[in-house]
């Protein structure tokens, strides 16, 4: 038997509870893993609370990422005792996930634990941090270089935002952090932000074009915020669109694209090939200061995840939330 969070649905009502499950009930997969740490990402919070259409079938064990130890393997790349990391691949959405003591997964989805990090540190980074790295890399591929000018990060106190601020600052960029919670300004400065901006500045309907300010941007909010970010990008600059914390809509005009040649770079962390994942994790190993990462991390147990999920969606959490699953 093992403990897992289980999401069920009756009519329109979602219930999530910690349950004891039998290992026989685990889904198909060729690697069995003892989960050491998982995390609470925005998507997990949507799955747990039922506030967004994340779960594709019920009952579902949520949890899109984990660090764990292989207990049994029928996959040629993994043996019992190997430490592995998982992000995405529909786990916690259509395949039982990692907010549990055990998971059965496909070996093709797993990477080895990056040598630079302990299992707990990999989950302090989690899918949010790995996504921030993908976004920074996308901006660099588009041509962004340190010294180009301020790089904007929206939803800055969140998981993706906090890691994005740390990584961009470490690379030598001047980071402008947008937050709705100015009381966390010192936290953001400590992570490396040079400037703190009020979320309200980006919240209303966007003009087609605004003053050219940003050399690049990472957006976690969507909706009017993303439209305002696009309108304020400098000629030829790009925004990496990661999230929808403010809404899934995109009420913008084409003006920034056709008059300033700006680019909208979509970031999907879920279905990246293994080589890209390993490259992102390896760069995080070079760029993240473990002490700073720890300051952006809090830890809860499996039994606290339901309450924490509501707090996260209500914007009452900060940084990354690690879930101790063992
Ligand atoms: P968090 O909840 O940790 O952070 C989101 C932040 O957005 C909050 O801390 C808050 O920052 C800000 N925010 C929240 N609500 C609103 C609102 N209504 N309007 C404006 N700003 C708001 O989530 P994550 O960092 O884990 O994820 C951020 C987004 O990225 C999510 O939408 C998530 O789904 C998405 N995501 C996408 C991935 C991908 O593959 N594309 C992978 C991982 C995440 P503040 O208080 O500082 O303003």
UniProtKB/TrEMBL annotation:
Pfam families referenced in this protein's UniProt entry, alphabetically? ADH_N (PF08240), ADH_zinc_N (PF00107)
Q: Which residues form a coiled coil?
A: none
- MF-aspect GO terms: acryloyl-CoA reductase (NADPH) activity
Positions of the Enoyl reductase (ER) domain? 11-323
Listed name of the protein: Alcohol dehydrogenase
């Amino acid at each position: 038997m093992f403990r897992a969070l289980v999401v069920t649905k009756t009519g329109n009502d979602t219930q999530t509870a910690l349950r004891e499950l039998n290992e026989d009930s685990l889904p198909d997969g060729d690697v069995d893993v003892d989960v050491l740490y998982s995390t609470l990402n925005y998507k997990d919070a949507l799955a747990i609370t039922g506030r967004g259409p994340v779960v594709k079938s019920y009952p579902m064990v949520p949890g899109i990422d984990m660090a764990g130890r292989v207990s049994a393997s029928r996959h040629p790349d993994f043996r019992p005792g190997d430490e592995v990391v998982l992000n995405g691949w529909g786990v916690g959405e259509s395949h039982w996930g990692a907010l549990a003591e055990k998971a059965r997964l496909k070996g093709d989805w797993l990477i080895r634990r990056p040598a630079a990090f302990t299992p707990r540190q990999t989950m302090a980074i989690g899918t949010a941090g790995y996504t921030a790295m993908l976004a920074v890399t996308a901006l660099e591929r588009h041509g962004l270089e340190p010294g180009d000018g301020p790089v904007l990060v929206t939803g800055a106190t969140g998981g993706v935002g906090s890691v994005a601020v740390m990584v961009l600052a470490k690379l030598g960029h001047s980071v402008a952090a947008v937050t709705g919670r100015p009381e966390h300004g010192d936290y953001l400065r400590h992570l490396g932000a040079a400037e703190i901006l009020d979320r309200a500045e980006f919240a209303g309907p966007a003009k087609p074009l605004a003053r050219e300010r940003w050399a690049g941007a990472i957006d976690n909010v969507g909706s009017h915020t993303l439209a305002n970010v696009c309108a304020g990008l400098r000629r030829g600059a790009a925004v990496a669109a990661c999230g929808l914390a403010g809404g899934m809509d995109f009420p913008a005009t084409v003006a920034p694209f056709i008059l300033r040649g700006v680019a909208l770079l979509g970031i999907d962390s879920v279905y990246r090939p293994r080589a890209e994942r390993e490259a992102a994790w390896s760069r995080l190993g070079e760029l993240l200061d473990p002490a700073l990462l720890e300051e952006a991390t809090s830890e809860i147990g499996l039994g606290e995840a339901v309450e924490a999920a509501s707090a996260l969606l209500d914007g009452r959490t900060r940084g990354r939330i690690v879930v101790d699953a063992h």
